[in-house]
Amino acid sequence: MVNKECSCFRFELTSRPQFRKIIRKSTDNPIAVLTLVFALSRIVFALAGIRYTINFHDLWHIAEPGLLRDHLLQTLFYLHEQPPLLNLLVGIILKLFPSDYAIVFNGIFIGVGLAISIVLYKLMTHMGVGKIVALIMVLIFMVSPASILYENLFFYDYLLAALLIASAFLLFQYLTIGRLRYLVLFFVLLAVIVLTRSLFHLSWLLLVMVLLMILRRDQWKKIVLAGCIPCMLAVSIYVKNLVVFGNFGGSTWFGMNMARVTICQLDSADRAAMVRNKELSPLSLIPPFSNLSSYQRSVGTGYPTGIPTLDRPLKRDWLGCSTNFNNLAYIEISRQYGRDAQYVLTHRPGAFGKAIMLSSFYYFYPASVHFLLDSNRARISWYERIFDLAIYGQLYDYQNAHPHQDIPDSHGVAKIFKVGIMLVIGIPLLLLYGIRSIRQNFNAGLRGRALSITLAFIVGTMLWIMVVGILFECGENYRFRFMTEPYCFLLLGLFLSNRPWKKSGVMNGVARADGTVAEFRQADMLNAPGAIDGNG
Length: 536
Prior knowledge:
Mean pLDDT: 86
Distance between the termini: 13 Å
Structural class: mainly alpha
Strand order of the largest sheet: 1-2
Oligomer: single chain
């Protein structure tokens, strides 16, 4: 039986005995090391002024907090702007902790941050990454400015990053151990992801299920059994939206999102001329996601239904009033934007091409530039600058200059220096390495196939987020990419652990008791007798 805790690669960092002793102790109990560093880093950043931020006023995705607290089921049923689970979480916490909800959410996000680190480390080492390499990769992610800032912001990006890495871990566990419970939990998490963020369409969940059935044809019955209930739950929400709102999807914002990548990229004079020629509706002159009063002449404000979350033009929160994008009128507003966007896509494809170019730039920006992070970001600006330069290779310091604010400078050469050069180079190379590893390991025994299928899920999900995000969003693409950063560190760890390093540098190997390093091939681990135990 191959010992999973020993079957890994170690850096031979130095010949000094004290260094080897420190390294050996850190790898003997890596979870304790990760927990200690996590706790100390959070204390340090708290002393630097980082504070948890929860502001319903700025979150379009959250329904009126008072309605979630007092009329939770009704509000969730008539929620059409977003999938329901994030609002469900808010409603439950507001009901249970009406005064201390911020403290509770802060604790939840801290727990999620620690869970990401531990699960990422375990997944990396189980997939063949050396302990030292895995520890370094996790620590870099753990103390990255983006991780710190999103951990202290109530939004779904950090939660989804945790769900994605946990789903990959559960899939690998099922494929190597064979217990059905891991597969059930895997599909449950996928359904939770679909019902939390509309970026993950129902088709993503169904595609994962179908591909898994193809790749493991011998276990298709188990896959159907494990996935049927989570898939049916996700389908039921989509069907409810179709019956109640005439929209088969998780969100009714698609038309407004399409307007951002088509209509909004047109020159204002060209857009006005198209409206005068009746090629576009007058709605195209209004920026998407405007206040409801802006659309009164173009579409109207809807009719009363008696349902507060559908009727109110504004939602009330603890900071005043903000636009209620769940108002029923926004369904027709979004549809009209969608029709205009389709016309622009057909007759002015250059506008969409411009949006794709901009979105591609924004995808490779450091994820910490979002305006909701500003208050905390300013407190660690020096640290962010050092990290972004050293790790991401970002040459231009654009503190307080957000991507969506410089869209008119779409052809500026300076925009090139705002991206992370290492992200632009590294992410495509990591994806290519992942695809190559999938092909190489698929026929390398049961564990090799488990590695390949898990990598296929990881690489496929990264490509889904990249392609869908670039095609349908222009301005916050870096925030989409953040969800895949744990995957990027995992792929980088696999690459570093499986390169044929020369003896003068880092070596692949298993540390022996005497401190020497025995050469080790991953293929030996994948094909070793007893490397997989179907009974767990």
